[in-house]
Amino acid sequence: MKQLPFAIRILSLQQQSAQQLRDYELWLLLNGSLQVTARGTHVLTKQDVLFFEPGETVSALPLGDNTILAVTLDSERFRADLGAANPMVRCNSASVPGDYVPLVEHLRLLADAFFNRSDVDWTRLMSMYYQLLHLLERFRVQVGEVSGEAAVGEHGSGAAAGALVHCEGRSEQRLFQPVLV
């Protein structure tokens, strides 16, 4: 089978942990609550989503039982597929307002397909990967939105929200076409 540009794990943290990430990572808290420190401190509750960049040190403290869906995205492939050397994504439902429902639903479907991939072929998983990129593109920081406040339009302001703040030197445009199967 061909290599996928992502991997998915189900985590349950029982004690405080810290790690430096090698790739992009997206967490969906399936249940429970968790305090996460990465460029600020965020308390995640059920259905919260948080996006991390390579090199970030992430510290997590469980606030009771929890289950995390962790999607790791290959850094080189992610950058290439978004057409940017440094794709700045700001996705933090714990502190940045926005419509996260489509992303949460897609992450659940992607995990189901990933863990039951004997029934799903590689092409379908790749299609779902490109759909994930399409959903994440909604949370990209655009030109002119990065200033001292790091405003991100309808998704809130970075400094005020304590969000994971990034800047991206591209104007808004579709940088890839999802493959639909």
Helix-strand topology string: EEEEEEHHHH
For the secondary structure, the number of strands is 6
Rg, please? Answer: 16 Å
Largest sheet: 6 strands, antiparallel
The number of helical runs is 4
Query: Looking at the structure, what is the overall shape?
Result: globular
Q: Strand percentage, roughly?
A: 25-35%
**What structural class results from the helix and strand content?**
alpha+beta
Report on the structure:
With 181 residues, this protein is α+β, with helices and mostly antiparallel strands. Helices cover 24% and strands 28% of the residues. It has helices at 75-82, 101-115, 122-137, 158-161, and strands at 6-11, 17-20, 24-37, 41-45, 49-52, 57-73. Strands 1, 2, 3, 4, 5 and 6 form a six-stranded antiparallel β-sheet that branches. The longest helix has 16 residues, at 122-137. It is globular, with a radius of gyration of 16 Å. 31% of the residues are buried. Mean pLDDT is 77; it is low at 143-181.
Features:
181 residues, single chain, six-stranded antiparallel β-sheet, alpha+beta
Furnish the topology, listing elements before pairings:
Blueprint: E1 6-11, E2 17-20, E3 24-37, E4 41-45, E5 49-52, E6 57-73, H1 75-82, H2 101-115, H3 122-137, H4 158-161
Antiparallel strand pairs: 1-6, 2-6, 3-4, 3-5, 3-6
Summarize the structure.
This protein has 181 residues and is an alpha+beta fold. It is built from four helices and six strands.
